[in-house]
Structure formats: C-alpha cells, structure tokens
Amino acid sequence: MAGAAAERAAPTGLLSIGQVLARLTPEFPDVRASKLRFLEEKGIVTPVRTASGYRKFSAADLDRIRVALTLQRDQYLPLKVIREHLDALDASGGAAELPTSIVSGPRRYRRDELVAASGATPSLLGDAVSSGMLPAAENYPETAVALLRALVALDGHGIGPRHLRPLRQSAERDVALVQSALSALLRRTDTPSRARASEMAPELATRLDEVRALLVKDGIGRLLS
What we know:
- The protein has helices at about 1-10, 15-25, 35-40, 60-75, 80-90, 100-105, 110-120, 120-130, 140-155, 165-180, 185, 190-225; strands at about 50, 55, 110, 140.
- It is mainly α.
- Among the domains are: about 1-100, Multidrug-efflux Transporter Regulator, Chain: A, Domain 2 (Orthogonal Bundle); about 105-165, Multidrug-efflux Transporter Regulator, Chain: A, Domain 2.
- The chain has a two-stranded antiparallel sheet. Strands 3-4 form a two-stranded antiparallel sheet.
- Mean pLDDT is about 85; it is low at about 1-10.
C-alpha cells in the first residue's frame, strides 16, 4: 500500500511507468515496463527517481520513447543511432530535424561510395565480399560502412576478412537463436505480433552481443594474466 501511494504521489508534471504505458499502449500495444527499463539502460531516456526509487518520466522522456519505438518498428534502426539523433535534437532545442535517412529511409552506397566512406581499398572490399562478410551487391546500407571501417582497422593489425569467417558464422547462429526465440510471434501476421517481434529482436541481439563481449573480455584477461 505504501509503495502504491508513493507511486501515485508523482511530482507535478511527471509520469509513473504505468502512466507512460497507458499513453503508449494505443500505438504500441505490446510495450511493457521491461522495455522502458531497457530504453533507460541504453540512454534513450533518463527518468528521475523519487526518494523511494520509483522512476518518473517527463513529457520530453515520453516523446523520446515514442520516437524510439517508432523508429525501431518502422526503420529497424539500432538504439545507438536513435539515441544520437535524439540527443542532437535536444542539443538544438528541437530546432533540428531528424535526418532524411530516418524519415525517408536509410541511405544506400554504391561500391565506390562505400570504399570512400569507409576508408577501405577496393581490394579489401573484394576480400570482404569473397569471405562472406559483405554480400556481392551494387548498393549497400549504412551498416556496411561501419562494418568495412572495422575491417579496415583490423586489417591494419593483420586480421583480414578471411580470418573473420567464424564471426560471420557466429552471427548467423545468433540470427537463428533470435528467430527461434521469436518463432511464435513471427508465425503470426497481425500487426501487434509483428510490432512486438520488431521490438524484441534488437533487445535479444544486444543481449547476445553483451554475452559475447564478456566472454571475449574474460578470454583476453586470461591471456594477459
């Protein structure tokens, strides 16, 4: 009872998790409190805490959550990219606009543009394609730029694309794990189920990345000890 009373006694203008969910549910019927906590963890919002530890969200927090959920659902953007653009909007006092790549869809890069944007050589791009790190295509998405930049950095240490084939295979296994976890939702064709799958897939991918990073960190620690 005391916790419920504290939850109701929100500072003026601030919203509890339940109130935020009530406002989001009509547009995002499958959003849960766990999703809000995940968005906080990833820096999308920073709700204030009461003396009792309850989260309280501002109107600006609610707007950021709504934009993040929309871009995840409609554009499949990673939260890191969403957070950077939201922070830029905040820094500009709302005067800036979301980039055209978000509003109208992600930019595509021709092979020569991909090489120029990533600092790679045509030879390295060819190696990345032949090793399966990138598909053979005429146009590439924004993610290919980041991947090729990483390959450039690794190549400088003698780690070429051919050495990274196991990573590609591991990534495919991760996709299979996510597909299996979401199989019940993916079999459905209704909009709420597809929206829920779109929300959960990036979360699962992030958790798998965290596990992998921790395992690698532990292995390197043992190597250097």
